[in-house]
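pls design
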């Protein structure tokens, strides 16, 4: 199963990063894609990754009557280490976002692994992913060279399970939109999942539920500044296949 080589990445999300105009130009000719008619298992390193990377797919798939499960790996408490109770806040933010996105309840399986240390619990994560694969779902996973250690550990676990069980897998970038350049993906296979205007609006509203990441209280800087959020406001979601 194809994957890009993982290399350590250091980036500052406060900086502008790669302009989305460059990504739009690079992705413009990529084909439209939709998963096979089977359940989805969306693996999310932190609450908000599943909505940013695949919120539109999640909504449309659920509305079509397919089963959707989110495997929420951590509670994202390390985003602001000084913020007591952030894990509880981020769980609630995800619940609010999902209530906006889908009219049907979305099943969320929370692993509660320590934020920032997923690699150390990778074998446990692989086992948890395998437990959710009895229905032979399409795996929707983080991108394996995304630039965040939890994203990359989760991606590696998903790729291993997909390979072992022969499951289709689609990988969503989050931070790679910011720090990478389109040329780095030359030869990669992309698929664009189209979003209608109603889904775009629902996803936009759902993304803004994650106030702890967008507009944190006090003097904390946003983890996801407005220029990063822009990558996820397109009329399609892009997946590496």
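designed seq:
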């Amino acid at each position: 199963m194809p994957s890009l080589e993982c290399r350590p990445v250091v980036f500052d999300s406060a900086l502008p990063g790669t302009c989305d105009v460059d990504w739009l130009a690079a992705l413009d000719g990529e084909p439209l894609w939709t998963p096979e008619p089977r359940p989805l298992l969306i693996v999310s390193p932190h609450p908000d990754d599943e909505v940013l990377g695949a919120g539109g797919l999640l909504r449309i798939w659920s509305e079509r009557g397919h089963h959707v499960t989110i495997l929420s790996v951590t509670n994202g408490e390390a985003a602001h280490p000084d913020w007591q109770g952030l894990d509880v806040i981020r769980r609630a933010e995800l619940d609010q976002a999902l209530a906006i996105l889908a009219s049907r309840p979305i099943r969320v399986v929370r692993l509660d692994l320590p934020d920032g240390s997923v690699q150390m619990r990778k074998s446990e994560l692989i086992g948890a992913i395998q437990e959710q694969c009895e229905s032979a779902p399409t795996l929707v996973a983080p991108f394996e060279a995304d630039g965040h250690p939890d994203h990359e550990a989760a991606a590696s676990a998903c790729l291993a399970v997909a390979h072992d069980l022969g499951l289709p897998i689609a990988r969503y970038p989050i931070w790679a939109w910011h720090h990478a350049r389109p040329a780095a993906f030359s030869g990669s296979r992309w698929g664009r999942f189209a979003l209608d205007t109603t889904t775009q609006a629902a996803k936009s509203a759902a993304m803004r539920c994650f106030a702890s990441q967008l507009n944190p209280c006090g003097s904390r800087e946003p983890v996801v500044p407005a220029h990063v959020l822009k990558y996820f406001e397109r009329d399609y979601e892009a997946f590496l296949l």
